[in-house]
Amino acid sequence: MSKVWQIVTIILVVIILIALGVGLGFSGVKNGEYDYVKIEINPKIEMLTDRHHNIVSIFPLNKEAKELIINEEFVGLKVEEGVKKFVDLCTLSNYIDVESDDNAIKLTVACGLTQSLEVKVYTEINKYLHQNEIKAVIVEQANDLEELKQAKKYGVCLCKFALMESVCNLYPDITMDEAKKLTEKEMLNKINTAFSSLQPEVNSYTEEELTNKVKLTNFNRAKINNHKQKINNKTQSKFADDYTAYVKENLKKFETNFNLEYKKWKENRINNSVA
């Protein structure tokens, strides 16, 4: 029954996304070469894909993400492969804790009205969590009530709001009101131009950054291997049922205001590590 529930959930996600897009006047990313993906865990990254869903560029939004992608190849991978790789790196570095039930992943995708790319990325993350028996909620941008409120403030759909935020982050001189006047295609082209110009900076790293990455992944490797060794057909079946109940209990608080809950989560992790 749990597999059936997962399929039904994904179908409902598509219906909701289309309804939201139509309701807010979003007609999809038209005539553009690129689609946009943002994943927020603690490390946060943005990706652009081509129309065949191959990754053409990747950009770290914080220092944690910059460290994680050191010496890692993402460009040229299918988006499912790249997303799985990034989530796995976050797990290896304990940003996703296999022994905890307070993990959260936020997913933002701008790819047009059908949202086929979002379904593909969501499904890949969901599959990874189940295969590795990790309790983590996946918060889609369409269900982040606080972000929906902000998008309505500007009179745009969530997909356009995400692109506006990205453009303003990459081009500090551009205001949100100015970004609003751009089409989705124009914003994606500006994002791609910025990513290209920033690639030398993204690809460079210090010895300290490399050391931090190696320390993180090596420190948690034994714990993760021990966790994986306990996984078998029996535990997989039980996890599927437990995960359904877990999501039902925990998803709503992250959907109400993801950034606020993330801040609480980060403070809790820091306090526990200090203790």
Question: Tags for this entry?
Answer:
single chain; 275 residues; alpha+beta; 5-stranded mixed beta sheet; 11 helices; 5 strands; 62% helix
Account of the 3D structure:
The structure is a single chain. The protein is 62% helix and 11% strand. Helix 3 (79-92) runs parallel beside helix 4 (116-131), helix 6 packs across helix 8 (184-203) and helix 10 (233-256) crosses helix 11. The chain is α+β, with helices and mostly antiparallel strands and 275 residues long. The chain has one domain. The chain is built from eleven helices and five strands.
SSE map:
Layout: H1 2-23, E1 35-40, E2 44-49, E3 55-60, H2 63-68, H3 79-92, E4 103-110, H4 116-131, E5 136-140, H5 145-154, H6 158-170, H7 176-180, H8 184-203, H9 207-229, H10 233-256, H11 258-274
Parallel strand pairs: 4-5
Antiparallel strand pairs: 1-2, 1-4, 2-3
Helix pairs in contact: 3-4, 6-8, 10-11
